[in-house]
């Protein structure tokens, strides 16, 4: 099941794992396995990727990064198939992503003996890229009757949905705000008029989808496979400049 009605769907380059995720979700539909279990699965896959990278098994690292991307899509897919959306799953997913991203880049820094300052800069760039993509995607979904588990403005604790505990939502929301609050504020201040815009063309969303976590992990996997690990951190620093380009295009289209 898509997060958007068919007429508003676009080529999402970060969502290459969706076909496999759908197969996994359908296979688990009538089992006792929950979306949270699948989220735990992608956390384990991410940890295995970090361990493989630390020991410089780069092909195995790429495998587990791609598997993480697939499972990352499968948890939401399973939630939609079972009609059991939850804020617990939504925030656990996001918090797990940012923590794993941090340790992935920290591991790259360790094995390349690069500069720690540039590693933190790359991490900030990585998160700002993903935040812009999610910002535009959530706006698109909210404007066009898509999935509404994610909100444009994550400023208040949401009311727990059926089947989840409010305490869990409260705790995970607090952690989410701590991890993502600064990035959300920066992107909103850079493009505060985006929610008022009436047009996010498919080609622009496809371009911005290169900022999605799935595509970011794919880039890391490919660079590892080709022995380009020293260039991963500089790449994500440089690619962050496209944030300004995409925001400029969005503003020009909706002026």
From TrEMBL:
InterPro entries: CDP-OH_P_trans (IPR000462), CDP-OH_PTrfase_TM_dom (IPR043130), CDP_ALCOHOL_P_TRANSF_CS (IPR048254). The keyword Lipid biosynthesis does not apply. PROSITE patterns: CDP_ALCOHOL_P_TRANSF. The keyword Membrane applies. It comes from the Bacteria. The chain crosses the membrane at residues 36-54, 91-111, 117-136, 203-226, 232-253. Keywords: Membrane, Transferase, Transmembrane, Transmembrane helix. Belongs to the CDP-alcohol phosphatidyltransferase class-I family. This is CDP-alcohol phosphatidyltransferase family protein. It comes from Sediminicola luteus.
